């Protein structure tokens, strides 16, 4: 299946995108979803290697779906109220 070192490279690149490209809210949500999926694959590999049950990984996947839906609803709300997902528009709020 996947090599663990490849998953670590994808995880660190997702962290880099999340930290460095913080101008648009959509890019931040997409990089956060990449991190969530890579962590799910790491959990899946760990559980299958040690022959554990996959119940916790299914709970994690359900919570990540809820997180994605919440992020999408926040994105729609921000675009409706401010006109774009550019986070530098919110500088006057702080």
Describe the structure.
The chain is mainly α and 94 residues long. The protein has one domain (4-93): Helix Hairpins (Orthogonal Bundle). Helices cover 74% and strands 0% of the residues. It contains three helices and no strands. It starts with a helix and ends in a 12-residue tail after the last helix. The model has no long low-confidence stretch (mean pLDDT 88).
Keywords:
elongated, 3 helices, 94 residues, mainly alpha, Helix Hairpins
What's the total count of β strands? 0
Low-confidence stretches: none
Range of helix content: over 70%
Percent strand equals: under 5%
Query: What is the first-to-last residue Cα distance?
Result: 46 Å
Rg to the nearest angstrom?
16 Å
Approximate shape: elongated
Main pleated-sheet profile: none
Number of domains: 1
CATH-defined topology = Helix Hairpins
Mean pLDDT: 88
Which second-level CATH architecture applies? Orthogonal Bundle
The succession of helices and strands, N to C, reads: HHH
**CATH hierarchy, class:** Mainly Alpha
User: What count of helical segments does DSSP give?
Assistant: 3
Derived structural class: mainly alpha
Catalytic activity: a ubiquinone + NADH + 5 H(+)(in) = a ubiquinol + NAD(+) + 4 H(+)(out)
Keywords: Membrane, Mitochondrion, NAD, Translocase, Transmembrane, Transmembrane helix
Subcellular location: Membrane
Family: Belongs to the complex I subunit 4L family.
